[in-house]
Design brief:
single chain, about 450 residues, alpha/beta, six-stranded mixed beta sheet
Length: about 450
């Protein structure tokens, strides 16, 4: 059977296109979240050596800042000459973004054999049910390890202790900022969530905590298992002025550093944790100071307070919880004066949307709420109603749209050329406006 004649009712094979595999997984389990390592470990054991890294593994958990931390680690290790493998989720536009080799997404042709291998292992003997995330995590790591990297960087999907990524023992684990998100799965407060995040730590191995005020549960878990705990403000710290910054760890220090290319008020906190990882793994992966400077200068991570210059300015940010939106508000304030700021916003139904809307409401002159292409999303009309129930801005209008592209086009049609448009919320929101690359912009007077 060729790819052109594939029957969607049948399981794919190694000749099937990646899109067919992804559709098959959605039919099997959909996008439902399933925590626990028993099932995914059973399939991993059947795959054997193909899933056993021969290189150091860095696992990054946290509520916000995970992706940026992973991107900076990748950029610095690449600048140092190492072959890097990076697994992150979710993706913005194309699934292949989840598995990067040396900064470039793997081709679908490299991923499909790994999908076929996981399916063969899953159905060997008694079939094991895997969620979409569990299956794709195994497949992506399988494909990345086949590239024989020098370092494997893994971003936790949710939580840590019971997340599929925690199947691999971290040689160095990182916990970024911790806040309230996924509370129905991880617990009602920072202490409960911190305990889940701390599940990525391993006995005797470094645990880098870049959150400057971590929950007590993280510290207690580290001491309970005798992890090598690195705390911001105790084992490493940073300082700086408007031009440059400096970092000091247990035995290493860097001075006169340029600020990371990633924008935002929290990126220096993330970068400080990254440099602690470099020191903790220096014996196995030595990195020169020039590679640190080059990596921080060249790092890119789309959709994380990404500013696209033009008329109007476009700001893209996958801020989808109150903590991330608070950081977005600070970043928008730091951009200076704009005569008009419009927002394009779509979110999942399980998110704590009200405080997000309240935090940005004073900054927004027009809201464009959009539906998203997933059953898990909140309806645009519900988002609008929630905003209307809490706003104090009688001078601000809001409308709803069937998708992010339509919402952005409406915002562009009403844009002040000297203003800005903020696209934020779910990955589906930001990814939706990037489906065909960066949108073409031009305020009305520019289109005449």
């Amino acid at each position: 059977m060729t790819a052109a004649t594939l029957d969607p009712a049948l399981p794919p094979d190694a000749t099937a296109p990646l899109a067919h595999w992804l559709a098959h997984l959605e039919r099997l389990h959909g996008q439902r979240i399933t925590l626990g390592l028993e099932r995914v470990r059973a399939v991993a054991e059947r795959l054997g050596e193909a899933l056993r890294p021969a290189c150091p593994v860095i696992t990054v958990a946290g509520t916000n800042g995970k992706g940026s931390t992973c991107a900076m680690l990748e950029a610095i290790y690449r600048a140092a000459g190492y072959r890097t493998a990076l697994y992150t989720s979710p993706h913005l536009v194309h699934f292949e973004e989840r598995a990067r080799r040396d900064g470039v997404p793997l081709a679908a042709a490299d991923l499909v054999p790994a999908f076929a291998a996981v399916e063969a292992a899953r159905t060997a003997g008694e079939a094991v049910a895997l969620s979409y995330f569990e299956f794709t995590t195994l497949a992506c790591v399988h494909a990345l390890l086949a590239q024989r990297p020098d370092v494997l960087i893994l971003e936790v999907g949710m939580g840590g202790r019971l997340d599929a990524v925690n199947l691999w023992d971290a040689d160095c684990a990182v916990i970024t900022s911790i806040d309230l998100d996924h509370m129905e799965y991880l617990g009602p407060d920072r202490e409960a969530i911190g305990y889940e995040k701390a599940g990525v730590a391993r006995t005797g191995r470094p645990l880098i905590v870049s959150d400057p005020l971590p929950p007590r549960s993280v510290l207690e878990r580290a001491r309970e298992i005798d992890a090598d705990l690195w705390l911001a403000g105790r084992d490493f710290r940073h300082s700086g002025d408007r031009q440059q910054w400096a970092w000091q760890g247990r035995a290493r220090r860097y001075g006169g550093l340029a600020y990371p290319a990633l924008r935002g008020v929290n990126q220096l906190v993330n970068a400080s944790g990254v440099l602690a990882v470099l020191e903790a793994l220096h014996a196995r992966l030595p990195v020169a100071a020039q590679a640190v400077r080059q990596g921080l200068a060249l790092v890119e991570w789309p959709g994380r307070f990404q500013i696209v210059p033009g008329e109007p300015v476009l700001v893209l940010d996958v801020a989808h919880n109150p903590h991330a939106v608070a950081a977005l508000a600070e970043n928008l304030d730091a951009m200076g004066f704009y005569p008009q700021t419009q927002a394009v916003f779509g979110a999942m139904a399980d998110k704590d949307v009200r405080p997000m809307l309240e935090r940005l409401d004073p900054l927004i002159d027009a809201w464009h709420f959009c539906d998203l292409p997933t059953a898990r999303a909140a309806r645009a009309t519900d988002l609008q109603a929630l905003w209307q129930g809490g706003t104090r801005r009688a001078d601000v209008a809001a409308r709803t749209y069937p998708d992010p592209v339509a919402a952005l086009q409406a915002a562009l049609g009403a844009a002040d050329p000297a203003g800005r448009i903020v696209v934020f919320g779910s990955f589906y929101t930001v990814g939706g406006v990037l489906q065909h690359g960066l949108p073409r912009r031009g305020a009305k007077h520019l289109q005449a």
